[in-house]
Amino acid sequence: MSTKFFKICLCACLCLATLALTACQGPSVPVTAPALTLPQTQPATVPATVPATAPATVPVTQPATAPSTQEPTVPATAPETVKPDTTPAVFLNPLTGLPIAEDKVTNRPVAMMVGNAKGGLPQEGISKADVIYETLTEGGQTRLMALFTDYAAVERVGSMRSAREYFIDFAQDYDAIFVHHGAANTAFEQIRERDIDNLEGIYGGLEGTTFFRDAVRRKELGYAHSMMVTGEGLVKGIARKKYRTTTEVDFPRPLQFAESTYELEGQSAVQVKVEFSSYCISDFEYDPETKLYRKFHYKGIPHVDCLYDNRQLEFTNLIVLGASIKPIEGDTEDHVSVGIIGTGDGYYISGGKMIPIRWEKTAHESPMRFTTADGEALLINPGKTYVGVTYLYYYRHFKVQ
Length: 401
Hints:
Helix content is about 25%, strand content about 25%. It is an alpha+beta fold. Among the domains are: about 100-240, YerB-like (YerB-like fold, 3-Layer(bba) Sandwich), CATH 3.50.90; about 265-400, YerB-like (YerB-like fold, 3-Layer(bba) Sandwich), CATH 3.50.90.10. The strands form four sheets. Strands 1, 2, 3, 5, 6, 9, 17, 18, 19, 20, 21 and 22 form a twelve-stranded mixed sheet that branches. Strands 10, 11, 12, 13, 16 and 23 form a six-stranded antiparallel sheet that branches. Strand 12 and strand 13 (about 300) form a beta hairpin. The protein is globular and about 60 Å long. It starts with a helix and ends with a strand. Residues about 1-70 have low confidence and may be disordered.
């Protein structure tokens, strides 16, 4: 009896254990499965129910896909947005090709008539000029025309002298306001007929505003060599006359500059002699260290600016032109005409070398144009420029070493 009861109890316990295990594993395990099959059904049902959903969702969100879509695009856009171009703009003086303040680039320049007679030396302020022209007036004597872009910064310039009509053409080549003290009759006629913007010191009502007499120069050099101008006076005179003060950046000036200094492929020119008459001669000596030409005149006298500690005039570029220069028939003061309407030959000198060039000016209002011997536009080196216009005879006997 006890043995039978024991068996019944054992069977009941096994049934309860099987039911408990089935409840934990899910409905897929048969309720009637014998206890000996439990180790075999556990691995078969676990993969079928629990892992079956987990692997299906993991590949969709796995981080391995993020770098594959982002890595190629980051380097492509970073340089454009993170590293913008911060190189400062460089603004160039249209008369020298050298850097200048942005607000000066469109300045309309001034062209000032400066005496060059030996008795009126030394001059003042001309070493600051961007461009200097030199040619004959009368009696074998030359006169200078000094061009300034930033004329408001001029301390003082002089002595101021009278105009000739061909200097008006040189000034118009740069769209410059013409500044002079008096003029030959032929020049006054051209100024009126052509309506030239000019500041004039005798009849223009500007003495005391733009022009003034320097007492020391008047005492030591004479009345004729004592008239001066200042930058402040130029600004006031231009404002009083209500002249235009700007010019177009692309105005076709005679001087066109290369982007950087280059070496000419020409003959040696370290010593240059520009003759205007038997006693009025401009000599230049090339300094290979500074790459500039130092100017001398009157047979070897250094051409200096006494306003700035007798600084000698120096130039990067020399341009020498041959032109028809003739006495004006019937003129009692020996004035000359300089034939610069038309074409002619010249030389460009820079860096110790020289090449032949051509010049052309078709009308008073048309700027002179310089070309190389083969007809290409002449590009000159950045820096200050001297332009000498002399007799065809002296041009044909032009001397360099």
